[in-house]
Design a protein that fits this description.
mainly alpha, two-stranded antiparallel ribbon, two-stranded parallel sheet, 4 strands, 8% strand, globular
Length: 254
């Protein structure tokens, strides 16, 4: 009788506070998340080179746009040009995430905290009658904290441009999963944490260009995992080429 090779994986469904507060990325919790490091090493080296060259050129070319947006923000609302927020990057390493400020200064994040908690724990897409239909997964439509200029920047995704600086500094990539907010991570199930392993977060990604703006959180995570497992330089190129069209259509951009 021929022998059968069977691989069994066990995934814990629950985690305690100790796991979250100490080493949130215990590799033993993800037994089938393996990479051929020799095969991937050269690819990721090229990916970083593309990120570095691409972000540098984009910053230089878009410098007039940066200046114009900065003037608009400074002359229409009080506060700094840039919004800075702590995010979780590769392997859960914290970094300061940059965006053009689109909200009033000192805006309370309680609304967004509650929205994110409900989005993740209830795993619901926007209801068809909901006011958030046709909006990206992580954004609240008619958010009272948004400035008039901020609404335009968000609609056109121009508020995301400063993330090119995050890419240049090596904290993010041009393409990758969306960087998580720490209070968002607190609501993650074990398998959701896959999306913070191995690869750097990106400005754009697979779920953003699919146009699934009313998707569930779980579906969004699955698209991130699909990107991670099927990653190639060609996939990055395809996502980058599809991103402008996704922004123009107003679907999937965040």
């Amino acid at each position: 009788m021929d022998e059968l090779s069977v691989v069994f994986h066990f995934y814990p469904e629950k985690h305690d506070d100790t796991t979250t507060k100490t080493n949130v990325f215990e590799r033993t919790l993800y037994p089938d998340f393996h990479f051929d490091h020799q095969a991937q090493r050269s690819g990721h080296f090229i990916k970083r080179a593309i990120d570095l060259v691409g972000s540098s050129l984009a910053i230089l070319v878009l410098l007039p746009v940066f200046c114009f947006i900065s003037i608009l923000i400074l002359t229409t609302s009080k506060g700094p040009v840039l919004f800075r927020q702590e995010r979780l990057g590769q392997f859960g390493k914290k970094f300061i995430f940059l965006k053009f400020r689109s909200m009033q200064v000192d805006s309370d994040d309680a609304i967004h905290r509650e929205y994110i908690k409900k989005l993740i724990t209830e795993n619901k897409a926007c209801e068809e009658s909901s006011d958030c239909l046709q909006k990206p997964v992580y954004k609240i439509r008619n958010d009272p904290r948004i400035t008039p200029i901020g609404a335009f920047l968000r609609k056109t995704s121009l508020d995301e441009l400063p993330q090119l600086l995050n890419v240049f500094r090596g904290e993010m990539s041009l393409v990758g999963p969306r960087p998580a907010i720490p209070y968002e991570f607190e609501n993650y199930d074990i398998w959701h944490r896959y999306r913070l392993l191995q690869v750097k977060p990106g400005i754009t990604g697979l779920w953003q260009v699919t146009g699934r703006s009313s998707t569930t959180f779980d579906e969004m995570v699955r698209l991130d995992l699909k990107y991670i497992h099927e990653w190639s330089l060609w996939l990055d190129v395809k996502i980058l080429l599809l991103t402008p069209w996704a922004v123009i259509k107003g679907k999937g951009a965040y």
